[in-house]
Every structure is written in C-alpha cells, then in structure tokens.
Amino acid sequence: MYDLYAIAEEHLVAAHRSEHGRSANLLLRQQPLRQTIIALTAGTKLDEHNAPPAASIQVLRGVVKLTTPAEEIELTNGDLYLIPHERHGLAAVTDTAFLLTTVND
User: Fold this and answer.
1) What digits encode the pLDDT tens for the residues 75-87?
2) pTM of this prediction?
3) Backbone angles phi, psi at 83, to 5 degrees
C-alpha cells in the first residue's frame, strides 16, 4: 500500500532541491500500466510531448495547467483528468504533485 500524499510531500521537498524544479517516483510498472508520482515547483514546465495510448492525471496537491492544441485546462487538488491522446504540455501554477497513470501498448 502507498500513502500517495506522503510520497507527494517527499517529492515536493526533492523538487525544491533540484535545479530543474521537479522530482518523480515510479510507483508501479506492471505492463502495460505505469503509475508515477511527479512533483513540480511553481513555474516549472514539462514541454509539449506525445501522449501514450491512455493516460490520466490526478492532482494530489496544488494547481497545474495542461495545454493541448484544442484547450487549456487548470486542474487542482483532487481533480482527475483523462489526458487526450494528443500532444500536450504541463505547467505548475503552484507547487504541485500529481499521480500520472499511463497505459502503453
């Protein structure tokens, strides 16, 4: 069993120590499923990248902005969002930690 909020807090501390403002921990890798905790300091961005066949983001702390060619959506504590299967980018509006779940072929 994992305490997602405790892991998120640990990685937020690590993100503040990182020169890149981010920290991540792969919790589960059982093909095709992957779950990763990612923490970003306010203002940190993940550049535009391709989406896996299926993915979701669940915000554990903070506010994050997800941008696709079609929309820009702001997600906050407790939000669960199915990431569209298209290129997207991510920016931390505040210090943020989220659970990224992906399914790859």
Assistant:
1) 999 999 999 889 9
2) 0.92
3) -75, 125
